[in-house]
Amino acid sequence: MEWRALSDLPATVSPRRLHVITWGCQMNVYDSARMADVLAPLGYAPTAEPGDADMVILNTCHIRDRASEKVFSALGRLRLLKLAREEAGGRMILAVAGCVAQAEGEQIIARAPYVDIVLGPQTYHRLPEMVARASRAAGAVIDTEFPAEDKFDHLPESVAPQGLTAFLTIQEGCDKFCAYCVVPYTRGKERSRSSESVLDEARRMAGDGFTEIQLLGQNVNSYRDPAGNKTFAELLASVGELAGIRRVRFTTSHPRDFTRDIVQAIDAVPALCDHVHLPVQAGSTHVLKEMNREYTREEYLERIDWLKSAGRDISLSTDIIVGFPGETEAEYEETLTLLEAVGYDSLFSFKYSARPNTPAGERGDSLDDEEKGRRLTRLQALQRGISIRRNSRHLGQTVEAMVEGFNPARRQWIGRTSQNKVLNFTVPESATQPVPAVGSYVMVRVTATHPNSLVGELTV
Q1: 115 lies in a domain?
Q2: DSSP class of residue 417?
Q3: Can you give the pLDDT at residue 185?
Q4: Of the residues 392, 408, 443, the one at which a domain ends
């Protein structure tokens, strides 16, 4: 199939409205913004209401249980808006993008024939041509290929900055094939952008006024510069040294590819945040092997030791799955002892749910939902106590917070620390400086701590 470059497509001056609904990870947030960028030359501008849109895109995620059914439920509601628009003499192009689109493909059209476009995560740079085809021909346009070309080489410069943090995808896809995960099948093999293109985009983000950048990847630290110019740690440092950038975050790391030079970069470059998210998934080496995680408990703890020996106080977070097929009570207990050994600041925890077409999904559940729920509840209670203990070390400290908003009900400003902790704070009546601006950085003295947040007062 031949696709024309974006510059070859005729731009339109007639205003069109675009509504994008995003589910899932921060990479999907980035992809949604880039789809808006791609469509902007065709006259599409964002609208907050799907009923007002000339085009609606569902950017989907396939990680959670029943992901496909949630998409079809949303499509059913959008169908009514599409019909109402047609009855009024207009038209709504309805597109399904992302990982569910990649996994389901033609089945989406079979179940929802009113969908106009189905596209995978690697093809959204082709959206202008898809829109043109959908507009001039009957039938749906489906593109779920894994193209040879790199989509990032065909994207325009970002024209739709949103939020306070600029998300920047540097790596996509996965070659790890964890037994429970659909990502290798929906995002394809691992691909990395050139360090030059990453730095160019980061400079544009800084020029747009962003002071915080988050580097994204399915396995972000598995980054391999195609030109061979920079390692992941060197790229991290280079982004952190750009003019105007105050904070750099990265997610999600894979323990197998987590190297000591990453910790050394965090120590050396002040803009690199004091937080690392390092998903472990289970505390038992046997379960990790069954999951095909490619590291042992001991190898994971070695990486934790690197982080704890850093010159900076680095907060740690992780992901854990309980109830993986075959997980015994003793192996589950190993996960609990890992929490105590590491001392995570926070974690994301889930009951195992089978995903279609994955090796683990073919084994069937060995535990009922009630038992998985018991294990999850106990795990979360243990982590709550650890989080309370970890957060208490900040009591009395004065820390920097990026201002994210204001809660009028509590009359508190909402900030976030370099350690990725929410810090709700007040401004003393004696303060003479202006009211904190959203996006600014302020110094706050921590006066109280909770399991999931800190409380403080602006220093004057």
Answers
A1: yes
A2: E
A3: 87
A4: 392
**Beta 454-458 vs 441-449: how paired, if at all?**
antiparallel
**Residue whose pair of structure tokens reads 């440092």 in the numeric block:** 237
The whole-model pTM stands at 0.85
Segments forming the whole domain that contains residue 42: 6-143
On whether residue 152 sits in a domain, the answer given is no
CATH at residue 82: 3.40.50.12160
What domain count does the chain have? 3
Rounded Cα distance between 373 and 381, Å, is 12
Residues 296 and 180 reside in one and the same domain: yes
Average pLDDT in the 148-154 region? 74
For residue 24, how far is the Cα from the chain centroid? 7
User: Average pLDDT in the 198-224 region?
Assistant: 95
Task: State whether 365 and 438 are in the same domain.
Answer: no
Q: What is the pLDDT of residues 267-321, one digit of tens each?
A: 999 999 999 999 999 999 999 999 999 999 999 999 999 999 999 999 999 999 9
Question: Which whole-number Å values give the CA distances from 446 to 425, 428, 451, 454, 459, in the listed order?
Answer: 8, 13, 14, 7, 10
Q: Where a domain ends, among 349, 372, 392? A: 392
Output DSSP code: residue 156. Answer: P
Q: Which helix (H) or strand (E) holds 17?
A: strand 16-22
The overall longest dimension of the chain from CA atoms, in Å, is: 67
Rg (CA), the chain: 23
Q: Is residue 248 within 8 Å of 265, Cβ to Cβ?
A: no
Q: Please report the pLDDT score of residue 4 as a whole number.
A: 38
E strand or H helix at 79? helix 67-87
Residue 430 CA from chain centroid, whole number: 40
Strands 315-322 and 275-277, sheet pairing: parallel
Per-residue pLDDT band at 377 (split at 50, 70, 90): very high
Kind of pairing between the strands at 165-172 and 212-217:
parallel
For 384, phi then psi, to 5°, come to -60, -45
pLDDT surpassing 90 at residue 341: yes
Percent of the chain, pLDDT > 70? Answer: 95
Question: From CA 418, how far away is CA 413, in angstroms rounded?
Answer: 16
Mean pLDDT of the chain: 91
- Decide: 229 and 196 in contact? Cβ < 8 Å: yes
Residue 154 lies in a domain: no
Residue 151 lies in a domain: no
Indicate the SS3 state at residue 287.
helix
Asked if residue 273 and residue 130 are part of one domain, the reply reads no
